[in-house]
Specification:
- By secondary structure, the protein is α/β, with parallel strands linked by helices.
- The protein folds into 2 domains: 5-11 and 253-344, Aspartate Aminotransferase, domain 1; 15-249, Aspartate Aminotransferase, domain 2 (3-Layer(aba) Sandwich), CATH 3.40.640.10.
- It is 42% helix and 17% strand.
- The chain has a 7-stranded mixed β-sheet with strand order 2-10-9-8-7-3-4, with helices on both faces.
- α7 (151-164) links the parallel β7 (132-138) and β8 (168-171).
- The chain binds pyridoxal-5'-phosphate.
- Pyridoxal-5'-phosphate binds at residues 60-62, 65, 86, 138, 143, 171, 173, 199, 201, 210.
- Its EC number is 4.1.2.49, 4.1.2.5.
- Its cofactor is pyridoxal 5'-phosphate.
- Keywords: Lyase, Pyridoxal phosphate.
Length: 346
Amino acid sequence: MNKMIDLRSDTVTTPPQAMLKEILTANLGDDIMGEDSTVNELEKQAAELLGMEDALLLTSGTMANQVALMTFCQRGEEVIMGKESHIYNLEGAATSAVAQVQIKTVQVDNGVYDLKEIEKNINIGDIQRAKTSLISLENTYNLNAGQIIPMDNLKEIKLLANKYEIPIYMDGARLFNASIELGISPADICKEVDAVQFCLTKGLAAPIGSILAGSKEFIDKARFNKQRLGGGMRQAGIIAAPAIYALNHMIDRLKDDNDRADWLAQKISDIPHFKIETGGMRTNIVSPIITHDQTDSLQLINYLLEEGIKVKNIAEKQVRMIVHYQIEQEELNRIISALENFSSTL
Ligand SMILES: *Cc1c(COP(=O)(O)O)cnc(C)c1O
């Protein structure tokens, strides 16, 4: 039996032995007291990498996002974000239940935010409206497409935000997939925003954690909000040690994931009854659309499962495949031949 190929997400990545070994030799302390030197080292290194003054280790991307909203916004204020944002759709309505902010959504096409729509949604000083206190971007954008926000769009958003004195937050869960594809340093991307989070647990393959980064003042407040949510941890160096390894060894290889996803997309677009959406800059996510009338995602998913391949259902006729650390050319070949076989049965 071939080993299972799991393309449902890059969160399924498991750490290499060398990454796990770092845990055994890590210096540990009480992180709530600021005394875990491994966490302190990670936060310092991450802040430098992102060109931010300070950084904070949190348990997850969801917690980082919600802490960011809590830190930037007062209760009842408004945040503008893309309609398909993770924060808006996939965080259990924590925006209303926890951060207690209101969301205004705007259109994003191929990673490009509609500036006119953002501007139209900004409220300042009207007694009947909620005050806009944050613009929240996602880069790479949208779980299902993984497109990069073009730098010129990001710069235009920054000019607009400056005009109204509204800060910009970036949910950069897969920020390094974007930076490596653009050939632009993470710090140069983050220059355009006030705060950012990235996930250690996706393509970077660490077991736990996200990093939130911003100004010293922002991170001081965020640290308090993290604690308030029960996110304070004690010997969190066991999380930080593999995370440091991930920053040192796992970022450059994300180019392989992006390139393999591109190869996969090209091959799938040649298979009858499948279509690949084009437009935008691809990273490690491929979401094929089934064009045949007699079949759908569920049939495809069941077929692939029998072949030892897991993909994610995202629409009646669309599935998602995320390429990651455990997917190499051999796996890609198996995926293509399974899809070709499925196609030939139609
Ligand atoms: C995965 C993801 C998150 C949440 O990260 P978790 O660690 O799973 O909570 C947030 N935003 C985006 C864009 C993501 O892809």
